[in-house]
Amino acid sequence: MADEPLLARVHFGREDAERDVTDDGYGLLLRGGFLPTAAYNAAVRGRKMLIIGRKGSGKSAICMQLMADGAQLAGKALVTPDETAGEEIRRFELQGLPGDSAKALIWRYVFAVHAARHLTAHAKDAHGRKPDSVKALLRFLKQNGELDGEGLAERLAKGAKGLQTSLSLEAFGIKAGLGLGQAPSEGARAQRQLEVVERGVAQAFADLGCDTAHEPLLVMVDQLELVWSAEPDSNAMVIGLLLAAKHAASRYGRSVRFLLFLRADIYDSLSFGEGDKFHGDELRIAWTEEALHDLALARARAAAGVELTAEQLWREVFPPAVACEEMPDYVFRRCLPRPRDAIQFLNLCQDTAVNHGRDRITEQDVLEAEFQFSAWKLKDLHLEYLVTHPFLENLFPLFQNQGYVVSRAALTSRFEAAQETLHRLFPAYADALTLSGITDVLYDVGFLGVRRGNDVVFAGGHYLPVQPHETEFHIHPCFRAALGAHSAIDLRRYEPVVAVDRLVQGNFFGFQSGTVSLPNRDARLLREVLRSCESVLAQTGRAVALSQAARDEIAGEINQVAHDVSAILAGTEPSFDADEQLFATAHYFSSTAAQLTASGLTDGAQEVAHRLEEEVRRLRRLAGGSYGSTGNSGL
Fold it and tell me: Looking at the whole model, is its pTM more than 0.90?
């Protein structure tokens, strides 16, 4: 309604495309808010056969969109195995053939049957005739019980039985037996039978002239992850699918096109001799922050039903900035680069604001939502890789309540303390549970990034895996809130001395600026403290081997010291003790240097630590080597 707050009209949809396309209203949201990516365009144009991406990267959204809007195609068939169908394929065996070759045959049979069922209706609807080859397919489907509307699992069971024993091939002029019983093996007999069926399908396409008359039949396979495990039979099932799709694409030519949507971790775990022949068919889904920004705006527009501008979305619905960072940057940098994460975070921000009774999202709503979102993502990461890396959740405590910049030395120390326990809990993975092993895993799943030059890179794209000489890792911003990793390095916070003194002495109010006259010695000592701060800041700025986030954190604390001292020199802080301030600063410098030295970070951190220690010695000399008047100021 016109008077309804914009926040109430904006929504970013469901996290999964399957529900998005079926729910009332949300189906329109998926279609109206769908962003045609490079992967989608490649799928539409038929340039690629394998669409590969992480969980939540939008594979099923592309599939659902093609099912919804592929009017230019001659037909569409979507194969989504459930557990029963998956079990039929996993346990399918043929004497004389290795597992993946046998499973390729059952997949080829599935594709042939889908194509045959399509042709029996397509011939009359699109071409107005049914040549003898199509009539033969109709008889074949009837004779083998494949014409009715049974589910995939039931048809797989029938097909498996037929391939393992004997299919009815009379429709193609071949009497029972055909001499197939003389085949040297069960596998060879099944292959001969299947070749007869595929030849009949190809002949029907040729008789209708489908390869030149119109766009091809599109056969898509999605959601294999629901029936996959890391067991050999599951891998053989996927390898068989790849082999079958490549064979069928060649057998049926331009009449049929195949699209296989595979999760990246499943595809990358496969190892088979024909694997190098699929590289040209691969397209990996990759999302940038800019693309996620466009997706969010497109979905918000589709939901609001108005020509919503980016300015309205990020200024009126959301706060312009959070923690001094532009709102879109803040959100998308704290998501793994995939639509599902962005949708969840944005919806959670909205829900948080609505729960607080607000008509727009505030900075506090975003910060509150961030913690919940981060906890979700940490749990989701564990579940996403539960099959391949069941120990992943047990690695997270190595990073709790620490800085999000982690050196190889620090990680080594933490891992060595936990290694025995990890090996006891996961004995089958002992070979992988080494320092290099867990570093590779944490990088591959997107939990850790690695510093290269002035950039921090995370897995994806064309980045190299972690190299042995690389020593600095960063926890992805997505997981920092849940782990309590709020700062780059785990530095002790600087506590202003004057504020503490005022609270202790009960002298917080009642002073006036400019009324303090500093003795010459006190002013000189404070100026020297300020000079030490400037020296440390300069050294920090030159420490380019240290990450920018770490440099910013160190500089922030040192600037706080300088601010405190400057306030005293300006006469705005009347309650102070110059020696107390000097020794408190020296103590803080000393402890910070110790933390930087122990962090195991790069030479840049050690250079800053060395400068801090030099300034500690200089300040002590200036004060005559005394240790101050209170226990708090002792060095």
Answer: no
